[in-house]
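User: structure tokens for this one?
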Amino acid sequence: MCGMIFFIKILLLTSLFVSVFSVPLRVISKQAALRHDDFSQDDETMEYSKIMSKIAVVGSHSDEALFKENSLRGIGLKCSACKVALDYALWKFRQPNGSYNGLPEFIDSLCKRLEIESNVVCDGIVSAYKPVVLTLLRDLQLTGAEVCGLILPTTCYSPDLSWNKMKWNVTLPPKIQTNSSVQVRSNHGVTSTLKVLQLSDIHVDAKYTPGSTIDCSEPLCCRDNKATTTNPNSAGYWGSLGSCDTPYWTLELLLKHLSKKTYDYIIWTGDLPAHNDWGQSRQDQVTDLYNLTTLLLQYFPGTQIFPSLGNHESFPVNNFPPQYINGSNSVSWLYDALQKAWSPWLPKDALETVSKSGFYTVLVRPKFRIVSLNMNYCNQQNWWMLINPVDPNRELEWLVAVLTQAEKMGEKVHILGHIPPGSSDCLPVWSGNYYKIVNRFKDTITAQFFGHTHFDEMEIFYDENGVATNVAYIAPSVTTYADLHPGYREYTMDGFDTGSEWTVLDHDTFILNLTEANSLPKDQNPTWKYLYSAKSAYNLTDLTPSSWASRVESWSSDYSSYFQTYYYHYYKGNPPAKTCDAACKQKLLCDIKTAKSGDSDELCASLYT
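Assistant:
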């Protein structure tokens, strides 16, 4: 569950309730803050009738597009009703000084009365977001249409939002003429390879309780606040296929298993806490960070780990204000904790940028560099970006400078992050700039690694001529949330010898089959199962961008077994249906081809013909 969106879900539902049942309605418009005295009783009655008619009309259309499949933001209300209801709620509570006194308490009380969520969830989420939302509503004076554009960015697009209105471009330097380009060598030509582990989206839940209910009334289930049951669908010991997170002992089982292997380094792409966004605090997030860091140090004492910051690490979730936000709303508490937690793995200069902005770069070996981005500066659910969306904390400007220097030095670069750049969660203008950067430095950037979606997928970058230039690998999650087996990824790379290009030669994915694991005797530990190799499963000669692009194009023209295999792997061996139908296939293929958020119509045009 995404906390900011959940807060607005409550606001939207409760304000819609009030707009229907509160009379008389004074006025609903951008000028709603005008004094009541300016309107006669007849004006009020007429305006109320108009609004009720609008609500009736939009409520009668059941075929309007809903949210993207698997989105945690879906609340099923139409754009027009959203605008009407939120204009009213904002008008009702707006004070002459621009504040919104009483709005959070009103939302909380109606959340409980309408049983939108449990009392605990209503209290927790409203309390968590009260200071953030009230600050932004006061400072930005958002209209109902603009707030709806935040909730429904695709179906209720608002051109007036600053991050939609302000188009900006990061300056790119001309290409330096060198002999450096990506020359992918076959496995036979590689004399030295390295093995890299990627862990992503752990979401460990210290309150996971075997025997508790999987299907509960709250957004996160299988927890100790739910009555245990003997129902066969109750929470299993090792985890559950439902809206549940990772038991601590399952994470330890994984780390013990992995510690018996040898890795040259580990990629850790964020999202540590559980999905109980309503029941967390800053101290909880810091404690999770330190505990999990200590656990990794315990099991991998001699292995370098390169972490990236997830969107769940802050409190409230998705709350990453830029540097100029000071005082109680500052995020320095988290960046200071990151600097301390990551200090065993990162050099001093990297820790300095972590303490300021949550991103860093490290020269791992001569001619090989890693860049870890803070993808929360492209996060559409990070409302702080509305204040000034132009390259927050100058992260992309910094990235260009790092890549330019790497190009001069003949270095190859891997980029790590949490939210994939093509995700609908990433702001289109930020994503578009990042896309241009990747294409400009296509001979320097040899691999990208992300997480966030919990699925096993990828995104392909294309130049202006439609030629594939790069691939972003999106690793499967450790968490089971939602309805997924736990998983992890290993990469075989070309590296460590003279002439290494630091490209991905193959990747292997492993899962813990929970159905099998939970059927074992209690005194028997389950084993992690090998799911597939990319080269073998998809009949690839190599994992170059051009090879991936060719394979994806072949999938679009037929229903080959290779695509159905990709569908099975996408869901880590637990797909929602036996086969992926035409609509399902179009969506998954479009996701692969869309590494630039907001441009699916252009990038996926070939899929619709």
